[in-house]
Amino acid sequence: MRLPLTAKYAALPEQFFAALAPTPVKAPSLIALNEPLAEVLGLPINALKTEDGLSILAGNAVAEGSAPLAMAYSGHQFGHWSGQLGDGRAILLGEAAASDGQVYDIQLKGAGRTPFSRGGDGRSALGPVIREYLVSEAMAALGVPTTRALAAVRTGDIVLRETPLPGGIMARVAKAHVRVGTFQHFAAAKDLGALKALTDFCVGRLYPGEVGLDPRDKAAFLLEQTIVRQAGLVSHWMSLGFIHGVMNTDNMAISGETIDYGPCAFMDSYDPAKVFSSIDHQGRYAYQNQPPIAHWNLSCFASCLLPLLDDDEDAATAQAQAMLDAFPHIYEDALRARFSKKLGLDSKEAGDASLISGVLSWMEDTSADFTNTFRGLSEGKVDMEQDARLKVLENRWTSQATSAEARQSAMQATNPAYIPRNHQVEKAIRAAVDSGDDGPFHRLHAVLAKPFDTQRGADAYTDPPKPDEIVYQTFCGT
Ligand code: AMP
Ligand code: MG
């Protein structure tokens, strides 16, 4: 089968990747194909649903037009330099020019060993595939920049983790899979030519209107835009109670898309110190640490670009530092705008920040459910008399020109009713993994596709977990 793919990354110098095909699996079967996404990507939907199509999505066949490869990168993991990582279990199939004008990578995650696998088996268990499919598609429906799920496949093979588990493969789509760690890889090797080529590649893919910039301006532009995109991304996460879980530099995309969904989760009750990831013992990637960690990761990125910014090291450092210093302000502005919208504030006023933090501190004191509280405020269902901090908000509403009705409908369009709650995701995983029942996965996915619309018969998906359903930790499953 032929797929309409290009091989731009494969045309980069040889140190960028290892060319190799996926390793076949025993008995693949399709769990889900994201048809609306396939359509945007210009992929042949009917053909992908045939046995031949499944072979491609499972890595058992290489499509004509595909030049499969594993990308090289490095990174800081939990603040420590790891050196070479690379795609140890992911294979880039190629790129598709989509109907939205953007070019997208298509990658198979869990597609077999690569020269970057180190000790790993190159595979993925089915559970993390189900989780990534649900959470990344929910994020897309919520309007958050993210990699997308094109397909999920059962492999028919067993992978060994703590216990034997069914295997899965996820077909993932990204504007580009280039990470901060990709730049670090070539910076560590002092490969200036590669850094230039990578900068050209990123600007060409992500900002095609700017390819004519001279090399210095191009590097400065990419740094500045990446800072803006990451500030916007993390403020968006924070406004939804999303915790990425493993914000290592190899898991931060230059595109500003959320990438590498591992032990990620949405908070139920509001707790700024919340950590889910089982491997995050110090709480480095706790909810409230995400903005400073993004800033830190961006400083790693900036260091890589120094030799491209200016031949004079001091001048380059000063330029990069000035851009990095803007991050907290860009982030705070973006965050305030998000929470102002969530709380239905229709203008910018001096007291906004303290009003917002007042409501959040009330939520923290009462362990309020993050999602349901904002949704409840949007529907006029929160008793505003119960706390002075809520009275401040109510007084603000009264002083505004906007009608209560207009305010509530605007708030409902920004405060979701449905998020992928951990216990629901867990139920979908358990059914798929333990009983081969994909029903809960498909039902949850359908509800999450319209997170802002109150849906008949979907009340159970808004419920916080019962005490015995609370998920305290999430696992990478790698
Ligand atoms: P992650 O924590 O998923 O971002 O992965 C960190 C690094 O470990 C990346 O280089 C992955 O490609 C690699 N890796 C994770 N799981 C596996 C696996 N099962 N086999 C080979 N490499 C893996
Ligand atoms: Mg990763």
Quaternary state of this entry equals single chain
Q: Helicity level, as a percent range?
A: 40-55%
Bound small-molecule species:
adenosine monophosphate, magnesium ion
- Sequence stretches where pLDDT stays below 50 over 5 or more residues: none
**In percent, how much strand structure appears in the residues?**
5-15%
**SSE run:** EEHHHEEEEEEHEEHHHEEHHHHHHHHH
Helix/strand layout:
Layout: E1 17-19, E2 29-33, H1 35-40, H2 45-48, H3 51-57, E3 69-71, E4 74-77, E5 80-84, E6 90-97, E7 103-109, E8 124-125, H4 126-142, E9 148-160, E10 164-174, H5 180-188, H6 192-206, H7 215-240, E11 242-243, E12 265-266, H8 290-309, H9 313-325, H10 327-342, H11 352-365, H12 370-378, H13 388-399, H14 404-412, H15 422-435, H16 439-448
Antiparallel strand pairs: 1-3, 2-9, 4-5, 6-7, 7-10, 8-10, 9-10, 11-12
Helix pairs in contact: 4-15, 4-16, 5-6, 5-8, 6-7, 7-8, 7-9, 7-10, 8-9, 11-13, 12-14, 15-16
The structure holds adenosine monophosphate and magnesium ion.
Adenosine monophosphate is lined by residues 85-89, 116-117, 120-123, 246, 250-251, 260, 262, 476, 478.
